[in-house]
Specification:
Blueprint lengths: L2 H49 L1 E8 L5 E6 L4 H7 L23 E4 L10 H6 L9 E2 L5 H5 L6 H14 L16 H7 L3 E2 L1
Parallel strand pairs: 1-3, 4-5
Antiparallel strand pairs: 1-2
Length: about 200
């Protein structure tokens, strides 16, 4: 009779040990999926951003300026590439190509402005009064533009605004796109300015 309760006691002990081991295994296994689920949720969230699009305006010294739809996590470099890439006259040192694009923003790639010689700044400053030396509209100041025939301070500011918005002038003919400069005024400016 004593053998029977000892065997039952051993069986109960073994069963209890098995339940404890299975419970520990189940709990440890249950923790792993939870810890793996958190990165999966983060990846899904990141994938949601990747599927979202933003609209950006790429302007300035690019081959195909325009409005483009981009992935939400795209970079400025991607936007410039989408616009056909930078032109030879582009000054990419003025653009943070690694920045993320933002919805509704403009990516402006400015044109390179030729470096003036040491005496060039003085020549440019006096160029409106000096016959035969046209003023560079890509480097001229508001005061210099204001001295041109037919250009007042308001139109000079419009020229600076256009230059800033479009990354500079590619030709003198682009002055015709500036508000306040019509065909007659453009004809008189052709002799006074250069790019």
């Amino acid at each position: 009779m004593l053998d029977m309760p000892l065997r039952q006691l051993a069986a109960y002990g073994a069963a209890l040990a098995a339940v404890v081991l299975l419970g520990a295994w189940y709990l440890s296994r249950g923790a792993d999926p939870a810890s793996e689920a958190a990165p999966a949720a983060i990846e899904v969230e990141g994938d949601g951003d990747a599927g979202r699009t933003v609209v950006v305006h790429v302007a300035g010294a690019v081959r195909r300026p325009g409005v483009y739809r981009m992935r939400a996590n795209a970079r400025v470099d991607d936007a410039v590439g989408r616009a056909g890439g930078a032109t030879r006259r582009a000054d990419l040192s003025q653009v943070n190509l690694a920045a993320q694009v933002e919805d509704g923003r403009q990516v402006l790639v400015p044109k390179r402005v030729p470096a003036a010689a040491p005496g060039g700044a003085a020549a440019t400053a006096g160029s409106p009064a000096t016959p035969g030396v046209p003023l560079n509209i890509n480097t001229a100041t508001l005061e210099q533009l204001d001295e041109l025939d037919g250009i007042g301070p308001t139109t000079a500011q419009h020229i600076l605004d256009y230059r800033e918005e479009h990354g500079g002038f590619g030709s003198v003919e682009e002055l015709g796109e500036v508000p306040g400069i019509g065909d007659v005024r453009l004809a008189s400016l052709r002799e006074q300015v250069r790019v």
